[in-house]
């Protein structure tokens, strides 16, 4: 048995379990030990379900002993973002208003993972209701970046990205509304994919912005990410926005891309996603990645998407407007926190006291922005205009894809920033997602793959840089093919080069 099962990729782990070299229980115990060793520092998990994880692993071992054919990821442990509903296991969405809530049902992706024998280790930390770029908006404290514990692991899916980067889990689930899978993946040196909107069921995701939210996979390698994508994707009649189409061949594309042949592919570098505000080290790493693409046979050209510069403004009207509607369900009546119910106060006062106590500052800010944007006399001027900009962004993509197979850019303008550095400056925090916002506004797939390291501002360890690859709707496989080629060209997973955390064996 290897000295440290936590260092294996998900694909390697699954192969060893399938061959009988190790048991799923041994793998799960190794990851639970790793969590105990380092998570006091990383703070990736809100809840660790040791008993449930070991029971799932034991069931996988029993099914395999009986000769049953199991899924490609059976027995592989996973970190699950706490916005995804889990039957019998607390789900808070990073908010005090749902503290202690134990759902009576599973989200569709939870059910699919259980059926595949994936071992859910626990629920990962996140910005409250997925509103944030650093996990600092979590009601339960910030997670930390394993590359530098003074820095953010990104957000809102920072707990999942930190867990995967810290070898607490080989794979993870996040959700991406404006960049909340890709941005955390970039700053922690792992792979994260936002699927085509409707490609993965939203049933059982606690809603932030219903026209934008999309669950997706994290992994330390492109192949691991694709394997998880294949498990969770597909049509779901429980989700009216779910696409009834075949799942793109993402695993085959990841395997093909690893050979490094991109002949015949045209890659468009988005002119507007660079320049002022982008750290020199980030741009240098991405330029080196573009050169690698050319070496592998791709034609690399510059393309202009002139309306991408308006994505930030459009997003921060559309998403808060939808959040204002979605979060109205937290009314102190049906579930969750209930404050001030003394038998004297009326329902409206109880509701007001509950929402005041239960929601954090960023959630309140976005509810107020959204409510204002939807109010009488302002709807057309704000929400309506933002939707028109969204259409223009979609047209920019369509025009670019007439000549390009994929588009590329940095995933984030900077490497991971220091915790506390942007908490009092919402606009600086929002700027973390400048590159990631256009794709969800258009409903398109996009992946972040490590492109190397760049100097940390102020000194310290060099930090990961992410390269973003965007493709047309339902062409998720193109994202994986190009990402796998970059990964191979740069010598394999970047996460393997992360500093060793204290507490490791």
From TrEMBL:
Keyword Iron-sulfur appears in the UniProt entry: no
Keyword Phosphoprotein among UniProt keywords: no
The enzyme's E.C. designation: 6.3.5.7
Pfam family, one: Amidase
Key words, A-Z: ATP-binding, Ligase, Nucleotide-binding, Protein biosynthesis
Top-level taxon of origin: Bacteria
Active-site residue list: 81, 156, 180
Domain Amidase: 26-479
Enzyme class: ligase
Role description: Allows the formation of correctly charged Gln-tRNA(Gln) through the transamidation of misacylated Glu-tRNA(Gln) in organisms which lack glutaminyl-tRNA synthetase. The reaction takes place in the presence of glutamine and ATP through an activated gamma-phospho-Glu-tRNA(Gln).
Family, per entry: Belongs to the amidase family. GatA subfamily.
Name listed for the protein in its UniProt record: Glutamyl-tRNA(Gln) amidotransferase subunit A
Originating species: Cryptosporangium minutisporangium
